[in-house]
Structure formats: structure tokens, C-alpha cells
Design goal:
mainly beta; three-stranded antiparallel β-sheet; two-stranded antiparallel ribbon; 1 helix
């Protein structure tokens, strides 16, 4: 999964993309919401993207 406009922490690593395990796997990310607006959060696998695995993350100051 990729979050535009931000970097986030996964464990000790700082990233903007993270691999989520298959079969309803989960990953917890922590990010500092310091860039208000609308940002795409999506899967880089085109099949998943076409199937709707994308959301807009929106927040305001």
C-alpha cells in the first residue's frame, strides 16, 4: 500500500509504501498528519487497484 504526500513509520523503518500480507493481513502505520488535504492511499498491484483497493485520505488543519 502506498500513501501519497507522507512518510510513515512501520516498526523502526520510515517508508511511503508497505507490503501487506495476503489473506486479510494487517499492517499498522503511524504517520504525522502534517500535510492537510486529500491523499490517495492505494495498492500498487494494478489488479487490486482496478478492483477498488484505493481510498482518499482527507484531513484538515
Amino acid at each position: 500500500m502506498h500513501l501519497y504526500g507522507h512518510f510513515f513509520q512501520v516498526g523502526d523503518a520510515i517508508k511511503d509504501t508497505v507490503i501487506v500480507p495476503g489473506h486479510r493481513g494487517q499492517v499498522t502505520i503511524n504517520f504525522h498528519a502534517d500535510n492537510p488535504g486529500r491523499w490517495l492511499f492505494h495498492c500498487h498491484n494494478l489488479y487490486h487497484l482496478d478492483a477498488g483497493m484505493a481510498r482518499v485520505v482527507r484531513y484538515v488543519e
